[in-house]
Amino acid sequence: MENVDRVGLDWDLIYVGRKRLQVKQPERWVEGVSNLVHPDYSYWTLGYALSLQGAKRLLGARALGKMLPVDEYLPVMFNKHPREEYMAQFEQRDLLAFSVEPLLLFPTHYTGEPGYFSDTETSTIWDDEATTTDWDRQNTQRSSKQDGQGRPMPPGIAKEGGGVPSPSSASNQRDEL
C-alpha cells in the first residue's frame, strides 16, 4: 500500500488472492508500482482490499437483485468478464481494480487434490420450480403468495384467493405464532 500511496494511485479494489483465468498473456504491470498488475478475468476471490469509493460503486450498481456470485460480479464491474450477457446487466463498469503480484493468499487445496472440497465448483444452475426441495421456495419472487406490490408474503399471512390481508387480521395471525 505504500507504493500505491507513493504514486497516488486511484483504486477501488486490490486483489490479494485470486485465481487467474487468463494465462495466455501476462497481465500488464501498473506503471510506477513494482508489485501491482491490472487483473484480467479472475475467480476465487480469496481476499481483497476495497476502498470506500469502490464499495459505493459496487453497491450503486444494485447487484443484490441480480444474484450474481462475487467471482462473476467483480470482473464485470472492472469490465473484464468474457460473457456479454453478464456485462449487459450493468451499465457502469468502471471499478478501478488491481492485483498484487505475486499473490499473498492461496487456497489450501486446489481442484482435484486430496482434501479438496467445493459446494460450488461442480454445481449446476437450478431452474426447476416444479421440483420440491427442502427449501420449498414459498418465499421467492416466483411464489404465487405475493402482496399487492409483487413482494413475497410471510407463511400463513396470504389470504385465500390472493391479495393483502387487513392489518388487523395479519396482527392476529402473528399473535397466534
TrEMBL record:
Residues 129-177 are annotated as: Disordered. GO terms for molecular function: procollagen galactosyltransferase activity. Residues 166-177 have a biased composition (Polar residues). InterPro entries: Collagen_mod_GT25. This is Hexosyltransferase. It comes from Oncorhynchus mykiss (Rainbow trout).
